User: Which sequence fits this backbone?
């Protein structure tokens, strides 16, 4: 009994140190999640004990023990990671960590929105269509093939390709987001260069379509591609964030 009381007292003192002078949002979050993980483990064990284990065959009992042990190990690792995060945040690094995380998200959003120039490995594609047989569907197929290949940034002529980009191929002109792109069409894509090149070489895909209509597609892999065309985002008219 005294041992239990001492254990409880030690636990309360430890919790008091967590939420004492170094109280912060990070501390509270880590403590709350740690408590919830502990309760989940207790509930799992109690649920297991509540069952009639005497009727289970030996193989099922071993499997059940392995499952509980695995869950306990996983929860223990999560608790250790949360404690490390708590100590880092409590050590005065919370503002730095938050700023770094916010900057990382901002960089990703800017790349996706096409509002910043980017560079990296990728491919340069030169599409020649002397007979002007290229269709809107073919251009959309090319963009989709590059995206399926993991392209993180795409540029056609002087136009950055983003989620809202539209294309229109007529007999004499190719228009991308309202801008006329001259033939031969130069396309840049950043990503794994070998994968991107392979994506455009899929049988029956964009390259085969162009060649079948008298054109050519020249793909050059490069360790350093620069996509510097920028997209100017517009405010949505109808879509609004859900609270």
Assistant:
């Amino acid at each position: 009994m005294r041992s239990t009381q001492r254990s409880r007292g030690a636990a309360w003192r430890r919790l008091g140190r967590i939420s004492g002078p170094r109280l912060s949002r990070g501390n509270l979050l880590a403590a709350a999640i740690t408590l919830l993980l502990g309760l989940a483990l207790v509930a799992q064990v109690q649920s297991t004990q509540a069952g009639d284990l005497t009727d289970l065959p030996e193989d099922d009992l071993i499997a059940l023990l392995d499952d509980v042990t695995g869950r306990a190990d996983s929860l223990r690792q999560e608790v250790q990671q949360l404690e490390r995060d708590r100590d880092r945040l409590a050590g005065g690094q919370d503002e730095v960590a938050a700023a770094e995380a916010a900057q990382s998200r901002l960089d990703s959003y800017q790349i996706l929105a096409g509002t910043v120039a980017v560079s990296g490995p990728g491919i340069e594609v030169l599409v020649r269509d002397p007979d002007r047989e290229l269709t809107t569907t073919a251009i959309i197929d090319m963009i989709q093939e590059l995206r399926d290949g993991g392209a993180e940034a795409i540029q056609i002529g002087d136009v950055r390709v983003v989620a809202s980009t539209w294309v229109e191929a007529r007999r004499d002109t190719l228009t991308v987001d309202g801008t006329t792109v001259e033939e031969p069409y130069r396309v840049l894509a950043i990503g794994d260069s070998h994968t991107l090149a392979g994506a455009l070489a899929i049988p029956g895909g964009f390259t085969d379509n162009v060649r079948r209509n008298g054109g050519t597609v020249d793909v050059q892999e490069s360790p350093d591609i620069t996509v510097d065309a920028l997209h100017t985002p517009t405010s949505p008219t109808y879509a609004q964030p859900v609270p």
About this structure: The chain has a mean pLDDT of 78. The longest strand covers residues 216-227. The beta strands are 118-128, 153-156, 159-161, 167-169, 174-176, 179-181, 185-190, 216-227.
